[in-house]
Hints:
Elements: E1 3-6, H1 10-15, H2 17-28, E2 32-35, H3 38-47
Amino acid sequence: MxxxxxxxxxxxxxxxxALRALVHESNQGGQIWFVPDLDALxxxxxxxx
Length: 49
């Protein structure tokens, strides 16, 4: 099972180095992704097996 957090969190990322690290590490794996919009999610799903 995968979890995708869809939305623009750039303001929150600018304020928190811990959140930036969490998002970076999460996006390296295959279980939890942070993506800015549904198009980015669609691209990620198509390129990930």
